[in-house]
Amino acid sequence: MHDGFSVFLPPPRHLIVLTFPTSCFNYLFILQYIKDFYNKTVVSRNGTGLSEETLTLMYSLTVSVFAIGGLLGSLIVGMLVTRFGR
User: Fold this and answer.
1) What are the domain boundaries of the chain?
2) Which residues contact 62 (CB under 8 A, 6 or more apart)?
3) Could you give the CA distance from residue 31 to residue 71 in angstroms, rounded to a whole number?
4) pLDDT tens, 12-58?
5) Is the pTM of the predicted complex or chain greater than 0.90?
6) For residue 66, how many other CB atoms are within 10 A of its CB?
């Protein structure tokens, strides 16, 4: 259900890259980069790598936390602007 106005407002670019794999060619590069970062970090600390399922879970949590952080930031920014100015 659309209100008519939201059709003209595209979603922010950073959300498209992280959450819509079919709309951005760089999705696979970003996905692999983050998974490699997680895996290299765990290998350097423990000497063993992570399974593909664990890497996918960690990537999913990263995307979720990113969205939740954006929501919380947008709710808090009004109070901060009022208190400290622009």
Assistant:
1) 11-84
2) 34
3) 22
4) 555 555 555 455 556 677 778 888 999 999 999 999 999 999 998 99
5) no
6) 14
